[in-house]
Amino acid sequence: MSARTRTSTRTRTRHGTRALGTLIGIAVTVLLVTLLATQLQHAPSEPGLPLQDASTIRRQAGEKHLDPALIAAIVYAESKFEPRTSSAGALGLMQILPETAAFIADKSGGIRFTTSDLATPAINLAYGSWYLRYLLDHYEGDEMLAVAAYNAGLANVDSWVATARGEGSRLTVADMPFPETREYVRRVTRAQAEYRSVYPHALGLT
């Protein structure tokens, strides 16, 4: 083999090696990005503090201008991320009653909605998040009142607020007549803080 041939061969070898290295680098980058996306969607749950459908929660929070940790906390208080039907007939992750879902569908333009849709996590989270935004707007951003209404109903909380105002005071958790609602608001508030602390990356908070 001539010197020119050997030089040409070495050159081709070096170019081939560099090309292979570039391809390997690209493949590794794609793999890491895929793994990261998977981890964000299916973040490992902490004992006693589950989290699923994180990407859907992030998307709904962004679209409806909500704290994703608040959505997660409501889901935790309602179902602990285990979709089921309650004795009252509430369905799915955010435990939405069919009549509430029909109201949401009417207001949000969901003309093809059927009750069975609430079994789909993405739809359930979308409807529950829409209703949470509706309650927050109704109470001018007051999370405590919105969370209480999510549990006790809008009419009840409106009545409690009116009574407190009539007495010249502001409704507090301790003033709420329903023990279940008092505990519900406290549980959601605790869980919201815990989700912000434990899952900041999965919930898009950092």
For the structure shown, list the relevant keywords.
206 residues; mainly alpha; Lysozyme; 2 domains; 8 helices; globular; disordered N terminus
What's the number of domains? 2
The first-to-last residue Cα distance is 61 Å
Class by SSE composition? mainly alpha
As a whole number of angstroms, the C-alpha radius of gyration is 25 Å
What CATH architecture of the largest domain would you give? Orthogonal Bundle
Level-1 CATH class name of the largest domain:
Mainly Alpha
| Mean pLDDT rating | 85
Determine the number of helices (DSSP H or I, runs of at least 4 residues): 8
Largest sheet: none
Portion of residues in beta strands equals: under 5%
Number of strands: 0
Structure description:
The structure is a single chain. This protein has 2 domains: 41 residues; 147 residues, Lysozyme (Orthogonal Bundle), CATH 1.10.530.10. Helices cover 65% and strands 0% of the residues. The chain is built from 8 helices and no strands. The longest helix is centred in the N-terminal third of the chain and has 39 residues. The termini are far apart.
Q: Summarize this, please?
A:
This protein is mostly helical. Helices cover 65% and strands 0% of the residues.
Q: How do the strands and helices of this protein lay out in sequence?
A:
Blueprint: H1 3-41, H2 54-64, H3 68-79, H4 98-108, H5 121-138, H6 143-152, H7 154-166, H8 179-198
Helix pairs in contact: 2-5, 3-8, 4-5, 5-6, 6-7, 6-8
